[in-house]
Amino acid sequence: MGSATEPRLLPVGLAFTAGFVDTLGFVALFYFFTAHVTGNFVVLGSALTQPLHGLIAKVLALPTFIIAVGAVRLYGRSLEQRGVAAAPRLLALEAVFLAIFMALGCFATPLTDGDAPIAVVTALGGVVAMGVQNAGSRTVFASLSPTTVMTGNVTQLVIDTVDLVAGVPAAGVPALRARIRRFWPPVIAFTVGAGCGALGFKLGGFLSLLVPTLVVLGLAIRARLP
Q1: Is 15 domain-assigned?
Q2: Which pLDDT tens digit goes with each residue over 95-149?
Q3: In terms of Cα–Cα distance, which of 21, 8, 7, 25 is closest to 190?
Q4: Is 180 helix (H, G, I), strand (E, B) or coil?
Q5: Does residue 183 sit within a domain?
Q6: Residue 90 falls within a domain, yes or no?
Q7: When comparing pLDDT for 150 and 97, which is higher?
Q8: In angstroms, rounded to a whole number, what is the distance separating the alpha carbons of residues 20 and 200?
Q9: In the chain, is it the N or the C terminus that has fewer CB atoms within a 10 Å radius of its CB?
C-alpha cells in the first residue's frame, strides 16, 4: 500500500486536492461538481425553475464517474494480482488526469457556453481525475479517513466529540481520541483547498490546477519510497 499506511500526509494532501478541484470546477464550469458528482443532481433540479448552463456535462457526470471508478478498480485488481504496489500508481494516474483536466481547461478558456463540446469534455476530465481518487479512497486507502466527501467526516467528529465530553467508559476513550485525530486534518485540508481553488482560478484560471497536480505527484513519489 505504500504511503497508504501513513495516517497524516496522504489524507491531508488528497483532501486539499479534492477541495481545490471541486471548488475550481464549480466556479469555472457553471456550477459543476467534479468530486461530489451527485451534487450535480441538485443543480439539475434547480434548472427546472431557472435557466442554467452546462446541463449536458451535469447529466453525463455520474455515468462518467461510474466508468472511471470501475476502470480504476479493474486496474487496481490487476496490480494486486501481479503483486505490484497499487498506491503510487493510482496516485500517479490521478496526477496524469489532473494535468489533462488542466490542459483541457486552458485550451477551452474563455468558457462562455457550458454546453459547448470542449466545455463538456473539460468538465468530464475533472470527473475522471476525482473518480480515480474516490476509487482509491475506497480500496487502496480504505484504512484512512475519506478525502472527497467531508459530510461524513464532520458528522463523525461531532459524534465523537459529544461522546468524549459527555463521558464514555475509560476503555473507549483512546479509540475516540484516535478517531478524532484521524478525521479532523482532512476536514481542515479540504476547507483550505476549497479556498485555494477559488482564489487560484481567480488569479491563474485553469493553470492553477498545477498546484493540486504537483501535490498528488509528490504523494505518488513519496509512496514509492521505502
Answers
A1: yes
A2: 999 999 999 999 999 999 999 999 999 999 999 999 999 999 999 998 888 888 8
A3: 21
A4: helix
A5: no
A6: yes
A7: 97
A8: 9
A9: C
Total number of residues shown for the chain: 226
Global pTM reads 0.90
CATH of the domain at 78: 1.20.1250
Residue 79 has, within 13 A of its CA and on its CB side, a CA count of: 17
CA distance linking residue 92 with residue 166, whole number of Å: 44
Q: Has residue 155 been placed in a domain?
A: no
Mean local confidence (pLDDT), 42-69:
86
Here the cell at position 41 is: 443532481
Question: All 3 cell numbers of residue 50?
Answer: 431557472
Question: Which ranges in 29-172 belong to alpha helices (H)?
Answer: 39-46, 55-81, 86-108, 117-138, 150-166
Residue 63 has pLDDT above 90, yes or no: yes
Q: Which domain holds residue 117?
A: 2-148+190-224
Q: What is the per-residue pLDDT for 75?
A: 96
